[in-house]
Batch of 2 targets.
Target 1
Amino acid sequence: MGLDAMTVSTLDLQGGNSFFLREKIAALPIISANILRRDGTAPFPPWVLKQSSGISLAFIGLTGGSLENVRDFTLSPPMPALEKSLAELKGKAQFMILLSTLTSEENSTITREHPEIQVIISCDLMRGNFVHLPAPGTIIAQTTNDLASLGELKISWQPDASKGWRENRPVPREELEKSLTAGKEEIVRMENLITAATEKGKRRLTHRIGDQRRLNTLLKAKIDYSLESDSLVQKGEVSTFIPHFYKVYPKPGMQSVFNIVNNLEKQLKELQLETQ
């Protein structure tokens, strides 16, 4: 698939040192800042630098998980290992991507303590196909496990953006505004019915009015967020992203995987031509 970098979990480490010495595995661009052999040496580089469209990208790997059934490797504490890598990369990379098999809580801690990391690609076995923003300056994203899907994250990065990230997905504001107007009219209609209603009817109408008000609040928040996002994008105060998740069917290794990869490769080449 032409990977620039990848990291491994402790499940992979169960294969032992001999597994990673196999020709095809040894050729993979594996990175991890905190995997150690039992003798204290590092089997993989902690990070790798890449250039793309004139931007220096740094990929850092961090590994977490249980060491049960792992014979040949151990893990050093992830946070000191990360801080060491960040110190080594200072002044060398404009954009930093962390490949992490740590827990969601550990990843969230990293976003708060290290805002210089723009993107975390995570590996939470309990979650999948999501992108969220636990801190203004960092995206956490991942696909489902077992290669059930492939993810594509399109990013427009503004180095001087002061207000973090926003998803750049068109919002049908006109439809939202129509729904909000209709919701307000529905509340007025139900309030007019309460006076003549029975006690049971009043309770039912009061409950429905409460539900509609909560829905109206949600609609208003979506409209306001969309308007604010448009303004921030126009001012260049945020970087933007668009996520896509492609389902791999019927199972990994089938032609559908290669079709998706080939399509992404074609898009990447087109983007590189546009930016030259």
Target 2
Amino acid sequence: MSEQIRNKADRQEIRLAGSGGQGIIMAAVVLAEAAGVHEGRQVSQTQSYGPEARGGTCKAEVVISDGPIDYPKVEMPDFLLAMNQASVNTYFGDLKPTGLLIVDSTLVSKVPTAKTVSIPFTKIARETFGTDLVANMIALGALGHLIQGISLESLEEALVARVPAGTEELNLKALRAGVKAAEGYDLKKLPHTVAEDEE
């Protein structure tokens, strides 16, 4: 199990949101299996769709804990990954005061908090891999790096077990590209919130 620094509480709440077709559910499932199957932690993963299938709203949640999970759903995310502007507008209000907002700056132009990591996941996918379809794995790589509680090895193993046969290498490269994109962010140097200053 990874010995990297984790949140002060043993429970981490993570929400991933975007539109149908962006691979939000797949990213959440890989994240949950990396933490649960490969890191040996307690995990809960839930998901919901809007009334439309492709193009509608899509939300997936992962709860990771070192102990028993008494409630399986996210109430106040420690991390909110928003893959489009609508997701920011809809879910930012739930973010914990000390939480981190991570956005796809290709599709998000307005962010309501200073404590934000903005990475152009979709642009990286288009320019590096020639397809939008791996933006979710680039985002997952960045999210996994920023969470700091799940090893890249665990994410890679979970990814290979889940993605369609024949796409493993492409998706692994996308995952690593996301990690690289997030490496320039030092969470300790991001602006603090009032709640953090009071701790």
